[in-house]
Design goal:
The protein is mainly β and 554 residues long. It has four helices and 41 strands. Strand 33 and strand 34 form a beta hairpin.
């Protein structure tokens, strides 16, 4: 977690509960003290280091004596976390990458401190978008690396966990190497974009690959486990076991490794395979982590707070879909909460594509692939009245994943309250192998003239029903015949069109729905078994670079 100076100063006081990030203990502050001569305003606004405390005394739960924190030691206290830290006793190496200056990379377990390459060509320390803590390191892929020794490293049974963000195809992320004279290595690498758990002992090599690639430029959590001599290896990506095959490691109980390395392989005197990308929160354990412990590490990531995109100030409504129960889909930016309908046909799902933990699945009974109903009787969410939302200039961003190919589905739709068929909507049509359809339709009564603008992707050209997350953004800049509508799919402009038929219409929209549409006085194209996440509605057209920023929150 991260806290700004003001909130930290306002809450880190006597009698509040705190959490020690290193000891994984929670307790109550007994007292705080200041000995420095700084002013109240320096403490309050953060111009003094070490969170402005000289001493904090904490009584941890179940302990009869106090623990004293002084100076920089105070920095490891945060407001109480829900994390149990159940694997902490097994931790033998922990690089948090929180250093802001110098070449030292400190090991919080004090076994193996590393140094960035000492000739000044050091990896860059970054603060924007760290998945855990406030900083991470980025290596250039050509010359940068870090090196330490191997004090107290496990010989056989181990787990290696880290966050990475990269577009590299082939490189070594982290390794234990033989250095100047030994032709051996234990390492976590990238091989054609896949995670590779690798061990080399002379001419003998053992390797396990992940089933899919991870080099998509997004933060990804990696855990590799080795269960012991000639025992099972596993690779987990974002909490999921993605081991592409069954591998039992070789009988190497104690490889003569001499260095702990970040960003390179160093074998038999040769440095190679430089890593290009970012890394954070690297941990090595002397045991195999359980699924619960892997989940816990993954859930330590900091939730996306919206400040990473330049369009945040124009965000009118933001539905992160983080609810675990209830009939409200909360607007995390404004006051446009939506109501969920028909609890039998929606599910709060404990999986996420954004930096949260949950998403939502809308569904319905089978029936026909289009399914019309005059009753609102299946899974959907609805906002009415719209308030500050409008149908003239907007952008709608969302994520979706699904596998079914038998039922059309509505992602979102703006509706007029009384017109026979007036709408803007984004749908998936399953015909011809599947494609996306965006429609603008204007028809006041059943006997009125119908005005229509629409575009679609090529049926069957891309498999979007592959159970992977896909990012969709529709942008609309105004309400004229020259207005351009654009569809972005997975950070690429897929379609654009002008409002040749519907430009200049008075839309008068009254409601926004997710998961279902209203057309010809019926609810239709109700989504079935489609999981969605992170809906955002803006009051203007987003630029291509802003769409890229949204896609990068994956």
């Amino acid at each position: 977690m991260s806290y700004n100076t003001y909130s930290y100063q306002s809450t880190m006081t006597n009698a509040v509960r705190v959490y020690d990030e290193k000891l994984k203990k929670a307790g109550v502050i007994q007292s705080t003290s200041y000995y420095d001569p700084v002013t109240y305003y320096q403490r309050l606004y953060g111009s003094w280091p070490c969170r402005n405390f000289d001493r904090i005394i904490v009584r941890f739960d179940g302990e009869g004596s106090d623990t004293i924190y002084q100076g920089r030691g105070c920095e490891i206290l945060t407001l109480e976390s829900t994390l149990a830290g159940s694997a902490y006793s097994k931790l033998v190496l922990w690089y948090r990458f929180e250093e802001s200056t110098g070449t030292l990379i400190g090991d919080w377990i004090d076994n193996v401190h590393c140094r960035n390459k000492p000739d000044g060509d050091t990896a860059g320390s970054n603060t924007s978008g760290s998945p855990v803590g406030t900083r991470f390191l980025t290596y250039n892929g050509t010359s940068q690396y870090a090196i330490g020794n191997v004090t107290n490293m496990p010989n056989n049974t181990m787990s290696i966990a880290m966050w990475i963000k990269t577009t590299s195809d082939n490189s070594t992320i982290f390794s234990f190497g033989g250095g100047l004279s030994n032709n051996l290595e234990r390492a976590v690498k990238l091989s054609s974009g896949k995670i590779q758990l690798f061990e080399k002992n002379g001419g003998s090599e053992t390797s396990l690959l992940s089933s899919g690639t991870v080099n998509d430029g997004a933060w990804t959590h990696i855990v590799c486990t080795i269960a012991g001599i000639s025992s099972t290896w596993k690779i987990y990506v974002n909490k999921v076991d993605v081991s592409a095959s069954s591998v039992n490691g070789p009988g190497n109980s104690n490889l003569a490794i001499v260095h702990t390395l970040i960003g390179i392989s160093w074998i038999n005197g040769t440095i190679s395979n430089y890593y290009g990308g970012s890394i954070d929160d690297l941990r090595v354990y002397n045991d195999v982590l359980t699924q619960g412990q892997i989940d816990e590490l993954y859930d330590m990531r900091i939730p996306f707070n919206g400040t990473q995109t330049s369009a945040y100030s124009d965000l009118i409504a933001w539905y992160r879909c983080e609810e675990t129960s209830g009939a409200t889909l909360s607007d995390n930016k404004g006051s446009h909460d939506m109501t969920l309908y028909n609890s039998t046909y929606y599910t709060h799902v404990a999986a996420s594509v954004d930096q949260g933990s949950n998403s939502i699945e809308f569904s319905r009974s089978s029936n026909s692939k289009a399914y019309d109903s005059t009753s609102l009787n299946h899974g959907m969410s609805r906002l009415t009245p719209l308030g500050s939302l409008n149908g003239d200039a907007y952008s709608v961003s969302m994520w979706v994943k699904f596998t079914q190919t038998s039922y059309h589905g509505t992602m979102w739709q703006f509706n007029h309250p009384t017109h026979h068929a007036t709408m803007h909507r984004m749908t998936y049509i399953v015909d011809g192998g599947g494609y996306w359809l965006y429609q603008i339709y204007y028809k006041e009564t059943s006997g009125s003239t119908a005005y229509n603008d629409s575009f679609e992707t090529t049926p069957g050209a891309v498999n979007y029903h592959d159970n992977n997350w896909h990012h969709l953004v529709i942008t609309k800049s105004g309400n004229t015949v020259s207005d351009t509508i654009e569809l972005y799919i997975d950070n690429a402009l897929a379609k654009s069109a002008s409002l040749t038929n519907t430009g200049g219409k008075v839309w008068g929209f009254d409601s926004l729905t997710f998961g279902a549409g209203w057309h010809f006085n019926k609810w239709n194209w109700i989504s079935k078994a489609m999981t969605t996440d992170d809906y955002r509605v803006y009051n203007r057209k987003l630029t291509a670079s802003e769409v890229s920023e949204l896609y990068a929150t994956k």
